[in-house]
From TrEMBL:
It catalyses: L-threonylcarbamoyladenylate + adenosine(37) in tRNA = N(6)-L-threonylcarbamoyladenosine(37) in tRNA + AMP + H(+). SUPFAM superfamilies: Actin-like ATPase domain. It is found in: Cytoplasm. It is an enzyme of class 2 (transferase). This is tRNA N6-adenosine threonylcarbamoyltransferase. It comes from Ottowia thiooxydans. Substrate binds at L138, V139, S140, G141, G142, D171, G184, N278. Gene3D superfamilies: 3.30.420.40.
Amino acid sequence: SLVLGIESSCDETGVALVKSAGQGVPQLLAHALHTQMAMHADYGGVVPELASRDHIRRVLPLTRQVLQQADEVLENVDVVAYTRGPGLAGALLVGAGVACALAAALGKPVLGVHHLEGHLLSPFLSADPPEFPFIALLVSGGHTQLMQVDGVGHYRLLGETIDDAAGEAFDKSAKLLGLGYPGGPALARLAEFGDPTTYKLPRPLLHSGDLDFSFAGLKTAVLTQAKKFEGTPCDQARADLAASTQAAIVEVLMKKSIKALDQTGLKRLVVAGGVGANAALREQLNAACTKRGVRVHYPELELCTDNGAMIALAAAMRIDAKVEAPQARYAFDVKPRWPLDFATIA
Ligand code: ATP
Ligand code: MG
Ligand code: FE
């Protein structure tokens, strides 16, 4: 069957079409994305009302584009999937509203997807897809979690951040270094020219004994250092601080992932979410996992950050695994706050 997926939880409008044979990994036929990054950059962060309005402008043109790319027509779509949460309420409502309206017009059922389940399952679209069970390190702009994933819809939270997300730590540190928004990729680029051992930054909760994270203190430490540069702008010092910041975040993420693998005895790690695109993180995880005989799987680089493909995929996989059936009921709601381990076993 053909599943159309619509993502609009934050500042990316994503639409995709996947084809499912009822078993095996669904096939991605086409996907299209519009990022609002440039629009929000002037404000140093996402402006919710502007995000909603832009989703409205983009979602139908992107849908047409995807159908054309896949050489398909709307009438052949069997299920319309959308991101039900978590995310910005107004932004989510656009995707949900359009998805339900399209489905109602076509007389086809809908399925509301958990955004993090989309991130979590996105590596199944890569050239080297994982197998269940695995440990998932979910590192995005709003979340940092370690989960045990036993199958579609079977997610157990092992640990998570008690304050800022890893992506947020990248973004906020980047801002302090005078880099643009979103700062993660910019900080990573600057870090390439720096020495990561220059500044001794905190590794919060590294030895806490559990699998939780904390990144709020790191930002303060970066601020303290950055202030010392004022009046004496030195490019090397900024690069060194960027590298030291990245090293602190990456070390904690790597060591806690290894701890989760050791605790559960699992031999497979899946990394998902925007920070999963970070080269230093991939390098450290690859090295540590190779040593332990653990296989690591990542989404394709373009599917690390938000996209429609992961939403269509998650819907198709839920339907195929009979975890959830799509519904021909168009009174929709969105869930701006929605914990994954509660929500996904329907
Ligand atoms: P959530 O999924 O939790 O709702 P989100 O959808 O905003 O949050 P993603 O789109 O998955 O998050 O990822 C965006 C985050 O990833 C941003 O914080 C961004 O800075 C970070 N990021 C992207 N690329 C890199 C990189 N190469 N290095 C570090 N961070 C990165
Ligand atoms: Mg985004
Ligand atoms: Fe996301």
